Amino acid sequence: MESLRTDAAECHLVSRSVPVPAPSFRAVLDSADAPRTVWSAPDEASVVGSGAAATLTADGPERFDDIREAAQSLFASGDVHAGTEAARPRLFGGFAFHADSADGTPWADFPGARFVFPRVQVTWTGSEDPDESAAGDGRADTGAWLTVNAVGPDVSAADVESRLATERERLTSLPAPGPVDGPPGVGDRRRTTALGDWRVGVETAVNRIRSGDLRKVVLAQALEVDLDGDLSIADVLSRLGERYPECYRFLVEPEPAEDSPQTSFFGATPERLVSVRGRTVETDALAGTTGRGETPAEDEWLAQELARDEKNAHEHDLVAETVEEQLAPFAASVSAGPRRVKRLATVQHLWTPITATLDSDEHVLSLAEALHPTPAVGGLPPETALETIREIEPFDRGWYAAPVGWIDAAGYGTFAVALRSAVAREETATLFAGVGIVADSDPDREWDEVQLKYRPILDELEVDGE
Ligand SMILES: C=C(O[C@@H]1C=C(C(=O)O)C=C[C@H]1O)C(=O)O
């Protein structure tokens, strides 16, 4: 394709890319400088970012607008030779769940919003693992690009091109990674919410729903675990990619405060909040959950039970209807596919794909702001649900269940809902999981569903049988 190029009289952003033989995802991530970034989505190129050429942060209720404005001014004057669309300048990051994000462990280094324009970026347009992508005819899909970015009043194209040559040398001489490490093992576990307190919380929510103040609320828990060994995020993300190919994988690692250890927020979430490309908007209503069976027949039976179950259907339909309503003011048309079951390695969900055509050009962040939090992670009515969450949950959600993704100069982008995730720091990891509460929710069944939703991450931390 024609190279993507934007020249401006006054250049503050310079970006250069070259095609490279696909390096190993794990080797690239392991050798990346802080702050590291990972984004990998079904049907999209995977990205590892190393360092930051620019970082945008914002706090408070205006954080979506503030990031959008800062991104537009960053992208306004660019000298960009991307070579391919997937390597064009993009900002990667996300938001805190609540507008007034609290500080303190484990979220101390996470502002209300933070986006990184990577200093060095590797973009895989083919497989992330060159060893696994060899086609039957012996030729591998080796689509990958190396990009070097710089931002500032004094940056020169010559400097960026020379850095690109150096980075290319470094990339081609990366040592092959060893075998994927096993999980580190889990020692002590601390729950934010004991079963008794959970029952009281769910009953409070159910009473509020029965009294008519609330229609649905999503209550979450956190589980802090001590790790017995080192956690390799590269290995965890690589294994999550194999087990959950239909999920959105992410890693956010903000610069730590002085002398503090690095905090890493990562996960593999099945839920897309929104993607915008041109005037096409795609989103998913995902809510209503059951487990996986031991056999294909049991799996099928569970899926059918889920599809028939009235409580789950109600929980789900509130999400699908609300998403459609929230998109309506922006859209010439909104259409929802038939409700179906999405089967993942550990759980099955009710899923309605929703698409819309915009009336006029809209920035993806305007749509992300309008949709977040959907009743799949917040509730209905939204304000009462958020108050209920604040009142009942004894911990700060931080970036859990909030939008993570990317934006580009055109205002296109994709955001996922940061579920099936954990925040790791030194020898501990804190996992998060939540469930939708409606009028006939049973606290003990909801408790079991929370435990099921810890599985994707816990499976990557526990040694078999722990
Ligand atoms: C809140 C979570 O998941 C959400 C809640 C679901 C439910 O209540 O059935 C299903 C999928 C997600 O929308 C989570 O995984 O933590």
Automatic annotation (TrEMBL):
Pfam families: Chorismate_bind
Keyword NAD attributed: no
Region (Disordered): 168-190
Domain of life, per lineage: Archaea
Domain Chorismate-utilising enzyme C-terminal: from-to ranges: 197-453
Reaction equation(s) it catalyzes: chorismate = isochorismate
GO molecular function annotations of the record: isochorismate synthase activity
Keywords carried by this UniProt record: Isomerase
Signal peptide residues on this chain, from the entry's feature table: none
Biological process (GO), any one: L-tryptophan biosynthetic process
Keyword Cytoplasm: no
Record EC number: 5.4.4.2
Family named by the database record: Belongs to the isochorismate synthase family.
Protein's recorded name: isochorismate synthase
Organism: Halobellus clavatus
